[in-house]
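To: structure desk
From: M.T.
Subject: fold request, one chain
Message: Could you run this one when you get a chance? Sequence is below, nothing fancy, just the single chain.
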Amino acid sequence: MKPPKRLRDLDKETFKRILKRSTLEIDNVLSRVIPIIKEVKKEGEAAVERFTVQFDGVDLAPQHFQVSQSRIKAAYERISAELIESLKRMHRQVWDFHQYQRRKDWSVNKLFNE
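Reply: Done. Structure tokens follow.
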């Protein structure tokens, strides 16, 4: 397995190729996501609960959708400072990468009106 590279270390062509690959499947993704969004909009928490079971294999009641501050604090206390910093750094890197991938135009209203 190749070690990961930083965006700033990539040559221009590699950078463009990586960004382009995310747009190639957008129609496929939208055709799957839009019906889910419609169901959640129509059915609310019942749809979220059903999709959580379907996609995540976890049966959560709506009162457990949000993690309590006490559980978050307890989780932080169980892991090392190094792991926390690594997760924060990873978050920043993923965030930065996806900022470059964001579409300039989100005109997909026709799909929502079908």
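Reply (cont.): Residues 3 and 9 are 13 Å apart (CA to CA). Let me know if you need anything else for the meeting.
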